[in-house]
Amino acid sequence: MDLGIRGRKAIVNGGSAGMGRSAALALAREGVELFVSARGEARLQQTCREIADQTGANVIPICADHSTDEGREKILASCPDPDILVGTCAPPPMTPDYRSITGEQWREAIDISLLSPIEFMRRVLDGMVERRWGRIVNIATVAAKYPGEIRVLSGSTRAALANYTVAISKAVAKHNVAINNLLPGMHHSAFVEEQFSERARTKGTTYEQEVAEFSREWRIAAGRFGDCDDVGAFVAMFCSEFANYTTGQSLVIDGGATTSTF
């Protein structure tokens, strides 16, 4: 299926691993020119080479911290007029006890997962409006809609981001600019694999056993974690020509872990 975005330019922040990487790969398969940012240079360079080799797309790595002014300037200097903006980041640590969260952790979470995407949107939206075409997708977390203590550090800032994006999506929709959010649950990302592998080492179990136990405990209807490439496919669809009448939405992708009619 041709999504109608061949030749478009996209910034993918946090795109060296996990859902960000899957988003970049899905867009590259559609012929999008990519500008991929991440903090770790070695993994970023490898990811960009792999995506370029697999798809033939033009993939430019940008080693930068998108939560800082300096990092944002570097990214936007490389691609000042993107047609597509996709944002994600490494999630903060799980928080089984809300009392243990430090002020520094709050400030870091706010900078990375709220203020950074807001600033990127502020910087690119005028150009999208002027060109009468734009797509923005924020990969957030299901905890933004369904709060839980274990993800309060992540969910609260992303809930604020979802509120902001839905509000401004109304202002730009008439210019063929669509802004949407994805709210994924548990997926086999680099972060999850690291966290659950450490659990397994501590308990003398396996990664697979820990995933199965978590899936039972949190009543994930699918009985498993998701694949990051499935999230990437939704990113590509939300960035497509077919998303011209879908805006201000926050789509949950969690294997049926949460229960809601809408």
Automatic annotation (TrEMBL):
Top-level taxon in the UniProt lineage: Bacteria
PANTHER family: 3-OXOACYL-(ACYL-CARRIER-PROTEIN) REDUCTASE (PTHR42879), NADPH-DEPENDENT REDUCTASE BACG (PTHR42879:SF6)
Transmembrane segments: none
Lineage summary: Bacteria, Pseudomonadati, Pseudomonadota, Alphaproteobacteria, Sphingomonadales
UniProt protein name: SDR family oxidoreductase
Protein family membership: Belongs to the short-chain dehydrogenases/reductases (SDR) family.
